[in-house]
């Protein structure tokens, strides 16, 4: 059994943003030498997400607008969590909706995606350095 563990680091300059990490994850699969197995990618922060969807700018914009409607950042006083002195309760809620992690099969040494699928890192409380874990296991 082969395995590889790596961290991808991000510093999204805005409060919210999406980063397509598919190419980086594919490169790690290649480096791992795994031909048949699985690849787990998960956000290591409770105000960020990892998800799979279409790499289309309009859709990413729609996600941002939709999430802000579901859990608006302001007024920050609407959230009990923010009584702790933070202002990121909305980011925790957005992460819960978009998901912590994804698992993708590896077949013949490549990520086994459906049509149009790409892996994204979603940031909901940016302006600081954060990471995602990539864990690859298989033969």
Structure report:
There is one protein chain. The chain has 139 residues and is an alpha+beta fold. 25% of the residues lie in helices and 38% in strands. It is built from three helices and eight strands. The strands form two sheets. A five-stranded antiparallel sheet has the order 1-8-3-5-6, with helices on one face. It has a three-stranded antiparallel sheet with strand order 2-7-4, with helices on both faces. A hairpin with a 2-residue loop joins β5 (101-107) and β6. The mean pLDDT is 97.
Short description:
25% of the residues lie in helices and 38% in strands. With 139 residues, it is an alpha+beta fold.
Compile the SSE list and pairings.
Elements: E1 2-10, E2 17-20, H1 22-32, E3 36-43, E4 48-54, H2 57-70, H3 89-98, E5 101-107, E6 110-111, E7 117-123, E8 130-138
Antiparallel strand pairs: 1-8, 2-7, 3-5, 3-8, 4-7, 5-6
Largest sheet: 5 strands, antiparallel
Q: Return Rg in Å.
A: 16 Å
Count of DSSP H/I helices: 3
Measured distance between first and last alpha carbons: 5 Å
Query: What is the helix fraction of residues, given as a range?
Result: 25-40%
What is the ordering of alpha helices and beta strands?
EEHEEHHEEEE
Class based on secondary structure composition and strand pairing: alpha+beta
Strand line-up in the sheet with most strands: 1-8-3-5-6
Mean pLDDT equals: 97
* Low-confidence residue ranges: none
State which percent range the strand residues make up: 35-45%
How does the overall form come out from the CA principal axes?
elongated
Q: Based on DSSP secondary structure assignment, what is the total number of beta strands? A: 8
């Amino acid at each position: 059994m082969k395995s590889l563990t790596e961290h991808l680091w991000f510093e999204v300059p805005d409060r919210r943003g999406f980063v397509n990490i598919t190419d980086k994850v594919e490169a790690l699969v290649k480096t791992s030498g795994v031909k048949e197995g699985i690849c787990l990618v998960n956000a290591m922060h409770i105000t960020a997400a990892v998800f799979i969807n279409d790499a289309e700018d309009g859709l990413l914009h729609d996600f941002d607008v939709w999430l802000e409607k579901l859990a608006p950042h302001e007024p920050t006083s609407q959230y009990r969590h923010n009584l702790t002195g933070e202002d990121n309760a909305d980011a925790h809620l957005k992460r819960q909706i978009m998901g912590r992690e994804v698992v993708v099969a590896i077949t013949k040494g490549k990520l086994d995606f459906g049509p149009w699928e790409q892996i994204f890192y979603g940031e909901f409380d940016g302006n600081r350095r954060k990471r995602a874990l990539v864990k690859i296991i298989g033969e």
